[in-house]
Every structure is written in structure tokens, then in C-alpha cells.
Amino acid sequence: MKQHKAQKKKKFMAKLDHINTITVLSLVTSSAKPLINLLFSLFLSFLRHLLSSLTTTKPPRKSAARDDVVAAADDAVLRHSSISRALSQTLYMVTEVPVSSRKYDPVRSLAEQIVENNSRRVNDSYRCDVLRDVNRYGLSEAFVRTLSRLERLVLERRGGDTCPGGLGDGKVVGWVVRAVRSVGEGVVDRLGGSSWGWGEEDEEVSRLDGGEKLAAELLWLADMMAACGVGAEAVRKWGEASELASVAHLAEPRLQSILVKITALLIKHAKELKTEETPNKKSSAQQQQQLQQSRKNMLVSWLPFLCQACNGAEAPALPTSEKIQVEKVIEESIETLLGEEEQEQVLSLWLHHFFSNPHSDWPNLQGCYARWCDRARNQYIARQPAKYNKL
User: Fold this and answer.
1) Among candidates 318, 329, 322, which has minimal Cα distance to 260?
2) Which of 40, 43, 329, 390 would suit a FRET pair with 281, their CA atoms being 20 to 30 Å apart?
3) Which InterPro entries match (predicted)?
4) What is the DSSP track for 244-268?
């Protein structure tokens, strides 16, 4: 009897435990259901996003920063090539060797030979196309270095010619100082004395000769760069040299003559430049925009100098036929390669500097200016409301 009651009690307790377990599980499940639903929804959302990204993934586009990094890497590779170093070292020696040295012409000829041989091999096969980059890197480096030296020398000389205290034109004062120095040194030499602190050699003459040498080498480099198809860098750098352009008319006539020749050469070359063919439309558009900016900078920086440059018989810069040719190129560049606002900016600069200089007769862009006025007049009429138009 007692054993039977114990079994019944055991069964009852087992049923009670089962009921409690089910109750607890149901309570836990009901309380955790919102959390489970939330986690499940997040999982489905993540899965949909993952599938959509896998089906619509596109190759990454090259950014401007990436292009700059690639260009820098290419230049680093060029610097480590023997032929590139040979060209750079030879061009550096051209700058360092004085014109009076008998080694000057041979080292220039050696540099020309390296550039010409590189250009000749470019057409042999597609692999030799890298030699164009060798020329581009070496010549661009030499052009930038020489331009920087010339700009620094001209600015230093201009600072030396200025005289504080309102004593008139600094250029005239500089000439007077050099004349007095020259006369004084001549008298001292005849008396057999010392130079009284003026130095053993005329530093001014040395700097003048150095300026002409640097300018002549810039013309030489720009001509080679244009000939071997890498002149875009010369156009860009010359257009950015606005500080040199602003004081170039104060330089000696012979130096001005060379600067006029460089400007004329690069203005003609800038008009002939074209963007490189590329499958990337965005890259091509960027190249076109950069080319447009280079052309504008060239005219904005150097057109005022052309109007003010010394073109006398002492140092004729360009023959008459070439002046006419450059004049036509400038007009075509303004009318066909620049936008309306850029045309107005360039022609306004020309108007001011050409007519404010009583000795200037070139470049004469009066015809170009008149045509621009006609276009501006017609555009202004076209923008007027209909009530102003005659029936």
C-alpha cells in the first residue's frame, strides 16, 4: 500500500515538473520573440544588400589622385634607368659649363644626340615608346631647372636696379650705377691701383651674360621638346611663369629678344597641341581642360610682355614675316580655342598694354578685337526680350 502511494506521488511530481518546464519555456519564448524577429529582419536585410552588391559591382575608376601616384611611380622608374640618368646629367652639364668654354658646344651636341636617338627609336616598336618618356622626363626637368634659375636671376637683378627714395625709374638708376662703376674701375686700372671694393670682376656683367645663356638654353630646350612631341610641359611651365613675365620688359634688350622668341615658339606650339587619345572619356576631358588652361595662361602671362618688349634695331627679336605669322596664331588661338569670358580677359589685357605703350606696334590685334566686339554685340541683342525686337 505504501509502495503504491509512493509511485503515485512520484508520477504526480513528474507531471508537475513537466508542466513547469513547458510554462517556463513558453514564457521565455514569448519574451524573446521580438528580439528574434529583429535579428532575423537584420539578417535578411544584410543578405539582400550583399546579393545586390555582388550583382552590380563595377571596376573602380581611376581618380586624379591615383593618376598622380601612377605618374610619380613612372617618374621614379625613369630616374632609375641608365639612359634617363645619362640624359639628365648631360643636360645638367649644359647649364653648368660656361659658353666661353670650348667644351660647351660638344656637351650640347651630346645632349642633342641622345634626344634624337631616343626619338628615332620610338617608331621602331611599341616597346620603344618608353623612350619618349625618357625624353619627356629629362627635358622637362632641365626646362624647369633652367626656368627657375632665369627667373631668380632676373628678379634679383630687378631688385638691385631699384633705388628707394623716389629717384625715378629703377632701370635707369641701375644703368647709371653700372656706368659709374665701369668708369671708376677704368680709372683705377690706369692708375695701377686696386678696385676700391668693386671686386675683381664685374658681377653685373656676369649676371647679364648668365641671363642670356639661360634664356638661350630655354629656347633650345623648348625647341627640342616641341620637336620630339613632349612640348606640352614647356607650354604649361612657361604659361605659369607669370612673375618672370611681369618683369621681363625691364631686362636688357638682348635678353628680351630671346624671351620674345621663346614666347612666340611656345604660342605656336600651344595651338598645335592635341589631347592624347585615351579610352577614358573623363581622362580625355581633363586633358582638354588642362590644355585649355595652359593656352590661356600663356596668353595672359606673356601677351602684355610682347606688347612692351624692346623690338628696336639693336636687338630685333623676330623678322617681319614671323611676326605676322605669330600674330595670326594669337588671333586664331583667341577666337577658336578660348571661351567668351577668356577672350574678353585676354583682349582686355592686350588693349591696355598695347595702347598704353607709345612704342609698341606688335602684336596688333585690332581686327581680332573688332570681331570680338561684333560677336558680343550680337549676343547682347539676342538676349533681349522680344518686345525690344523690331517687327
Assistant:
1) 318
2) 329
3) At3g05675-like
4) HHHHGGGS-HHHHHHHHHHHHHHHH
